[in-house]
Please model this.
Amino acid sequence: SLGSSDMRVMSMMVGSIVAVVMAVFWSGILIVIIYCMRKKNLFVKSFGIGSIVSLYLFCLLRMFLPFNLTFTQGIELEGLFSDVFYALYLDKYQMGNYYVTLLDGLLVLWLGVGMFWFGQFYYRYRQICKCLQKTGKKEDAQCMNIMQEVYKLKGKQWEIAILKSEEVNMPTGIGICNKKIILPMQEYKDEELYYILLHEYTHFLNGDLLVKFMVQVFCCIFWWNPILYLLRKDLDQSLEMKCDVCVTENLSAKETADYLQTIVATLKAAGKRKRKAGFNGTVALGKGKKNELLERFKYVLDNQKSRGQSKKAMAVWIVAICVVWFASYAVVPLPAYEPSIEEIVTEPGMVEMTPDNTYIIY
Model:
């Protein structure tokens, strides 16, 4: 039978495994809820796209914190839940001089595939950055002058190199530390270039590239979780909508129309080019489908009319998400089993008491 120290170790390991499962489960539930609400125009209009992006990151934080709190209560469950846990964790198979469980094999598979995907993503990203650095043409006087106007409008100046390259078909921003804006090799009108650079610079100010990089890392680690791929797809669209609003918040109606026209012109020009290098940067003005582009346009125009969100509605949704977030730590399911006969009959003369061999005398 197990000693008290063995039981404590087993209890801690069981608690850790269940905590990871619950973290993935609850973060997935929250992501699906936010995703469904994000598709509602009223919710986006009242809550604000920036707050929705923050909620998505809040959900990722839940996945990153798989532990039990002091108030967490365990509920013992028998049946299928316990059977699955027994098959994964308690059934042992001999491999040479060692005994392993099915869970050990799954953890090795998880770690191995995760390291492979992360290594491939990082290597590919670095190679493309080097490729663009070598093939890119340095910024010209037009880019430098217009970038100064962008700095003046935003009131913050970060040193960002601007390159032109034939390797891209869309303007894009790359680099976490060494930031660059890569433009396709073509001639730009001053107004068109101004809005493109303003859009990309806003991405950098918002930290969008860092967010996308972090989400990609999560997808590499939790490669088996389909909810994260749903999050990544919708977060890309949400970041573009957030950037559009940040760009147009201080623009007039005519300037906003010119900005949207630049989006259309850039997409048309990109469709005529054949991209040679593909990478996970912040693609200027997006490359979404028609309905995604229309969603961005509609949200920008609605924001121009309303100029802000309902603080009351925002507070209600934040409180609701926080309640669900903390409630996810309140209860955890734990596997429950009948003790084995070896843990009961531990010496001669000791027998198990069951309803078949015991009775009560009044």
Summary: The chain has a mean pLDDT of 81. Residues 4-38 form the longest helix (35 residues). DSSP finds 13 helices and nine strands in the chain. The CA atoms of residues 130 and 278 lie 13 Å apart.
